[in-house]
């Protein structure tokens, strides 16, 4: 970022990353938090930067940074602030239950093709919940400013576990599910990347079965979604499922001319862990008010016959002049 430093930015450093363990990441290239600071009695700042050459976030068809990369930066900022300033144990697992974000100014995500996306996250953790002894309720509100202007607002809630309690809970849950039918389709075909606004086939997280049902691709070798091993499908992958499902379905519903669109608002609810070895089906429905030019898609995920996640995704067109002309020859 060029120009003078704002007073807020001047309190933070952007010269190096925090230790990867603080962001719950394994690879250094997957860490987006550079620094944190305390402001007031209940607010915290985090300096974040997303690398331009990232294999997932740079995989796009427009000269705009992906708002979902900013969501991931905020998620990491929450983890770092929790450990640095709020006494959260480093190995404490967390489960996101509700999350919403809104892009306040899409123009701030425009890619200059010179600088990475970087900004300042302001976090306001909610009051600690009581929980049930083996977990604690948590909530947060956050904003992201880019070039000193408001780019995104976020809010969410979930639960944190002591490590021993989490391990016991997941062992019991997975044991109960081991006898459930989890037969997947005989074969699936990953969608062409251009149908979901990507270029790299490996970043496509949706596939069609022979019956044309939409299912989630869980690629445990993916360098970003599976930066380290999980005992469940990670939240960032499910968020990308919501995005890809929305931009896939909107053109077929007559809401968009192409899948090249920005997610400007998302409200998601996660009601259960998504297991790694059982198929996850995905359904979509257009729910926006066309009279108001509202392009909104409802995306639902099911596993073992139960709904495990639901999202409402609002889309918007990018300015036509920014769309890259890809060489398809």
Automatic annotation (TrEMBL):
It comes from Nocardia fluminea. Residues 24-153, 195-313 form the A-factor biosynthesis hotdog domain. This is A-factor biosynthesis hotdog protein. It holds the Pfam family AfsA.
């Amino acid at each position: 970022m060029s120009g003078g430093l704002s007073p807020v930015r001047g309190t933070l450093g952007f010269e190096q990353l925090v230790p990867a363990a603080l962001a719950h990441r394994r690879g250094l290239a997957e860490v987006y938090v550079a620094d944190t600071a305390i402001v007031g009695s209940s607010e915290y700042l985090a300096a974040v930067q997303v690398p331009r050459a990232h294999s997932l976030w740079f995989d796009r068809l427009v000269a705009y940074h992906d708002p979902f990369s900013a969501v991931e930066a905020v998620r990491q900022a929450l983890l770092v602030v929790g450990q640095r300033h709020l006494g959260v144990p480093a190995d404490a697992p967390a489960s996101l239950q509700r999350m919403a974000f809104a892009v306040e100014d899409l123009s701030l995500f425009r890619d200059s093709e010179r600088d990475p996306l970087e900004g300042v996250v302001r976090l306001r953790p909610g009051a600690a919940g009581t929980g049930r002894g083996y977990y604690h309720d948590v909530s947060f509100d956050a904003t992201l400013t880019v070039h000193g202007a408001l780019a995104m607002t976020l809010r969410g809630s979930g639960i944190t576990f002591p490590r021993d309690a989490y391990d016991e809970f997941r062992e019991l849950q997975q044991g109960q599910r081991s006898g459930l039918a989890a037969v997947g389709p005989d074969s699936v075909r990953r969608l062409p990347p251009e149908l979901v606004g990507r270029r790299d086939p490996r970043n496509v997280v949706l596939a069609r079965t022979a019956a044309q049902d939409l299912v989630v691709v869980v690629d445990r070798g993916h360098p970003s979604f599976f930066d380290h091993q999980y005992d469940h499908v990670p939240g960032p992958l499910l968020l990308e499922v919501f995005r890809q499902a929305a931009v896939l379905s909107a053109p077929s519903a007559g809401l968009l001319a192409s899948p090249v669109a920005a997610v400007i608002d998302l409200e998601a609810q996660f009601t259960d862990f998504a297991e790694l070895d059982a198929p996850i089906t995905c359904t979509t429905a257009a729910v926006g008010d066309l009279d108001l030019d509202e392009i909104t898609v409802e995306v639902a995920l099911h596993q073992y016959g139960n709904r495990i996640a639901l999202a409402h995704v609002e889309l918007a067109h990018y300015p036509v002049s920014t769309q890259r002309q890809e060489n398809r020859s």
